[in-house]
Specification:
Helix content is 33%, strand content 34%. The chain is of the alpha+beta class. Strands 1, 17, 18, 19, 22 and 23 form a six-stranded mixed β-sheet that branches. It has a six-stranded antiparallel barrel with strand order 2-11-14-13-12-15.
Length: 402
């Protein structure tokens, strides 16, 4: 079986052979065509490389700008304030015990004995010299009557001696009585008069002793304690039968810290609130005791108070003492931080960077803490969250309106 090539295939082969022969016969015509293609390839490669480099720079600049913007936008928002300067009225809070400003213990100054009557109760007002209680005086009364009789006897003797002297003086002129007798009778008369004085003095002493069996108020005031009852036997020198608040005046003995004590002065006002009471009483510091307790490191400021039923001696109370005014920046407590190096705040500088600033604190009031040094008042101070910041950290400050 003979193979027959497809129609046209032979013609195609013939044309390829002819083209090859032509190129072989004319090599110079093929070389220019290959050189142009190479140049075109190189130009295209250079253009692609330049495009790649330009794209890399573009992408780099585009990536850098959003990063910076993202960093700025990711900075934490922090609330800040400019405290400025304000006139601050300082207060000191202290606690203490209420008592009488002048407490007068009243006791038995006489010989003592059985109490026969008590005339006052606790909480009553008394006047100076008022009899508070009486002690039995039956024996003293009898002694006083006996002494009064001795006074009468002494006066009778003195009168007799005077009469004898008068008669002797009349007889001297007639020569019946000598001058010596007159002198003797004169001495007798003088001795009798002296005995009268002695008897009267003794009678006065007995009466005074008897009167001292009455327990009397030394001054007007309020009876705070009554420690005797009728029928009770009391001895001489008993010192606490009664206790009287002179004039009814009260005081609070406020315990104040050693540092705060330096800021107080006599005459400053204070508001006193007894425990369990909604009432507040105004008083004045009338004395600052000169000593400080070695253990508690506290001193006592005595605040004078007028009498009021709500002020009960022995009760506990809180005092808010006005300690004067000062002009200084004032910050909320949340803005003031402290560590082993002392008190400090965080401020935000003009580049919105957090900086640590050491400060010294002063008076503490209901509105905040005064800053005595470290701030001028014009700084932007971080109000809160300072414990989560670090010096040098960038923030987005938001100013709080004051």
């Amino acid at each position: 079986m003979n193979y027959q090539p497809p129609v046209g295939h032979e013609d195609t082969d013939d044309r390829m052979i002819q083209n090859t022969a032509t190129i072989a016969d004319h090599p110079s015509e093929a070389e220019p065509s290959n050189g142009g293609a190479l140049r075109i390839a190189i130009i295209v490669a250079v253009l692609i490389l330049a495009a790649l480099i330009a794209g890399w720079f573009f992408l780099r600049s585009a990536n850098q700008t959003p990063a910076a913007e993202g960093t700025e936008s990711q900075a934490p928002q922090i609330t800040v304030m400019q405290p400025g300067s304000a006139t601050i009225e300082g207060t000191i809070t202290a606690t203490g015990t209420i008592g009488a400003r002048r407490s007068l213990p009243v006791g038995v100054v006489g010989e003592g004995g059985r109490v026969v009557s008590v005339n006052v109760e606790q909480g009553q007002w008394v006047r100076a010299g008022q009899v508070l209680a009486s002690i039995d005086r039956s024996v003293q009364n009898q002694q006083a009557r006996a002494q009064a009789a001795q006074v009468a006897v002494a006066r009778a003797d003195a009168e007799l001696a005077q009469n004898n002297l008068d008669r002797a003086l009349q007889l001297v002129e007639r020569g019946f009585v000598s001058t010596a007798d007159v002198d003797r009778l004169t001495a007798t008369r003088d001795a009798a008069r002296a005995r009268v004085d002695v008897a009267q003095a003794q009678l006065g002493e007995l009466r005074e002793r008897t009167a001292r069996l009455n327990i009397v108020a030394p001054a007007a005031g309020l009876v705070l304690e009554r420690n005797i009852e009728p029928g009770q036997t009391v001895g001489a020198g008993t010192s606490s039968a009664f206790v009287i608040a002179q004039g009814g005046q009260m005081e609070l003995r406020a315990q104040v810290g050693e540092n705060e004590l330096q800021r107080l002065s006599v005459g400053v006002e204070a508001d006193v609130s007894p425990v369990g009471s909604t009432e507040s009483y105004t008083g004045q510091v009338w004395q600052i005791e000169p000593t400080v307790n070695e253990q508690s490191r506290q001193g006592t400021a005595r605040i004078a108070l007028s009498y009021a039923p709500g002020l009960r001696p022995g009760g506990f109370a809180t005092a808010t003492i006005r300690s004067g005014t000062t002009v200084a920046p004032q910050l909320p407590e949340s803005a003031v931080l402290a560590d082993s190096d002392g008190s400090y705040v965080y401020i935000v500088d003009k580049d919105n960077t957090v900086q640590r600033r050491a400060i010294e604190t002063g008076m503490v009031t209901a509105n905040g803490i005064s800053i005595t040094s470290g701030l001028t008042g014009n700084e932007r101070v971080v109000l809160r969250a300072g414990g989560f910041l670090n010096p040098g950290e960038r923030v987005d400050p938001v100013t709080r309106d004051e």
